[in-house]
């Protein structure tokens, strides 16, 4: 149990690689008689399982006081890898708007940079509810776009862009306030 959060984090990294492989190389992995729509459903399932590990690794680590340096460093990296693999696949499949993906990923890298700066000043600004909503909308949008069955993926993507930008502004204000203390 002690290493379960780290195992979940590491599994998210593996699932990210698997997700991208499925999206980009389906025809090399699966026999030709399997319909291409199964790629979409399988990719969506992998993404949803990986997203669930993001919730549980943090929950278990907090609930049972199992935090670790590995988790602190690799949990956010695993999150970024999952989103990056999903967005790269969606862009290549022409299911996501490149500007929306650019805005979302740019905000993620920007906030990661702010976290590094804050850490250098021994400051930590905790994740806000807005950041959790941002993640939820991103997961929802990606799942809908990956499944390619239900309408609404594009709408959810632009809602995710709005919430992502808004939460980025909120984090920026919090970080600069924390750094100016």
Automatic annotation (TrEMBL):
Q: Which GO terms describe its molecular function?
A: CDP-diacylglycerol-glycerol-3-phosphate 3-phosphatidyltransferase activity
The source's domain of life comes to Bacteria
Name the EC number(s): 2.7.8.5
Q: List residues traversing the bilayer.
A: 12-29, 41-61, 81-105
Q: Which keywords has UniProt assigned to this entry?
A: Lipid biosynthesis, Lipid metabolism, Membrane, Phospholipid biosynthesis, Phospholipid metabolism, Transferase, Transmembrane, Transmembrane helix
Location comes to: Membrane
Q: Catalytic activity annotated for this protein?
A: a CDP-1,2-diacyl-sn-glycerol + sn-glycerol 3-phosphate = a 1,2-diacyl-sn-glycero-3-phospho-(1'-sn-glycero-3'-phosphate) + CMP + H(+)
Q: Which GO terms describe its biological process?
A: glycerophospholipid biosynthetic process
Q: Give the top-level enzyme category.
A: transferase
Topological type in the membrane: Multi-pass membrane protein
Cellular compartments per GO CC? membrane
Q: Name one Pfam family in it.
A: CDP-OH_P_transf
The annotated pathway is: Phospholipid metabolism; phosphatidylglycerol biosynthesis; phosphatidylglycerol from CDP-diacylglycerol: step 1/2
Q: Which family does it belong to?
A: Belongs to the CDP-alcohol phosphatidyltransferase class-I family.
NCBIfam families (alphabetical): pgsA
Protein name as catalogued: CDP-diacylglycerol--glycerol-3-phosphate 3-phosphatidyltransferase
Natural source organism:
Helicobacter muridarum
Q: Could you read off the lineage of the organism from its UniProt record?
A: Bacteria, Pseudomonadati, Campylobacterota, Epsilonproteobacteria, Campylobacterales
Q: What is the gene called?
A: pgsA
